[in-house]
Description:
The protein is mainly β. It is built from three helices and 32 strands. The chain has helices spanning 151-158, 304-313, 435-438, and strands at 2-3, 9-11, 16-23, 27-34, 46-47, 53-54, 57-60, 68-72, 82-89, 103-109, 112-117, 126-135, 138-148, 199-200, 237-238, 247-248, 263-266, 272-283, 287-300, 319-330, 336-343, 348-350, 355-359, 363-368, 382-387, 389-396, 401-405, 409-411, 416-420, 424-429, 447-452, 455-459. Strand 10 (103-109) and strand 11 (112-117) form a beta hairpin.
Amino acid sequence: MTALAPGENRPAPGDQLTVTVASSASVDVSALLVNSAGKVRSDADFVFFNQPTGPGVVYRHGNGGPDVVGVQTSALPADVDKVVVTASLDGRGPTTFAAVGALTATIESGSTALTFPISGLTTESGVVCVEIYRRNGAWKVRAIGQGYDDGLAGIASAFGVNLDDEPDVAAPQSAPTPPSQPPGHPAAPAPTYTQGNPVQQGQFAQPTTPPPPYPGHGAPGQPAPFAPPPAPQQQPSFSSQQGAQPVHSDLFDPSHAEVNGLGIQKQGGKMVKVGMNGEVMARSGSMVAYQGDLKFEALGSGGIGRAIRQHLTGEGVPLMKVSGRGDLFLANSAADVHIIDLDGTDGLTINGANVLAFDSTLRYDIGRVQGAAGYASNAGLFNCVFTGRGRIAITTHGSPVVLTVDQATYADPNAAVAWSSSLQTGIKRNDSFGLGRLMGRSTGEASTLAFSGRGFVIVQPSELPPGGLVGGTGGGQQAGTGGSIFG
């Protein structure tokens, strides 16, 4: 085994190379295929945990051991000048390599091995370990050891990877078709949020018209006239096309019929129906039924840049893209469903665990909650931020309240589901750190999210941590109950 010094190069020990990066801390290993200009040809040349294969290069997770990058130099495209192998801290341990002990890259082929012990790193959270490069028709290995303060994202950006995810999508030419009402149910205009916020809150409004008096009852304060009991109503029935006896059940009441129209609509209180003639983004695993010709495509977290941020923050939405013509039904653990329309002038910040589906015209990213960094783990407190024009379906555990922020407003971090992105946020400490805290006495409300500005906050009647009954798989800000970042 031969040890390399920083900057030293040696002939590649073979055509089939295995590069392993071992460290005393957990690191993510990746590889970039770059051209003679030192840039990737496209994002497909970035091989990492969310995109594990490229031409001539494959990433393999260590499963408890070091991650491995395999390189077959004879399979590399002619316009690839070098393969750069990197390591970055994954957010589960130290925040910089100054707190990491040994970090060693090893290049092996058959019985030959080259090692490169990397040292001298301080504020960096990512490092280019070694590169395998082409020189005069032969392949060589060079020890690099160059650090980056902004981790994997900084390394990827330096080599030309696009971290901005998908380009902006043009706004739709027309608003979504409003859902048709089932037979026997009069249509009612959807109320809108009227506090100056460009987000429609039709599903949260309370009815203002009192219900009509019950048949057979007189005016208030007067005895009810005698009326015979109503005759029992005949159960609705479903007749089989094959000539079998009809089936009778209240399940065939029009209130259980599917709604009509295109786009995302509420189907009862715990499900959405998407009338498909195009595509929609939905939480992976949320499909409960569909009709027609639909195609399902897993998207991970939705883009390279977002995949990196989701991996480091624990926040995001595991997505699938559904396209085609037909009807799609979505739900998440029988959670309550609500519809919100964005008009493009303000964004919506949402806990990723509460996102069910959204129009492909909307963009989302993962951002740090303002003012929370001082109280958070090294990853901080993160949520999903949606912008653009379109409709989004969210879930809550129970029926929420929508608070108008026209004065100082506070909410439990696990109960605040979503809020206007234009609001300013921070952390308020409610318990004083005195003798009571030292002896284990607390209000149980040590810290809350503080909101100021003009907008709204959606609060669910539950303090379940994200990923509980509502969360499903993946996502959720880094806050919990016992032992959380909020004390």
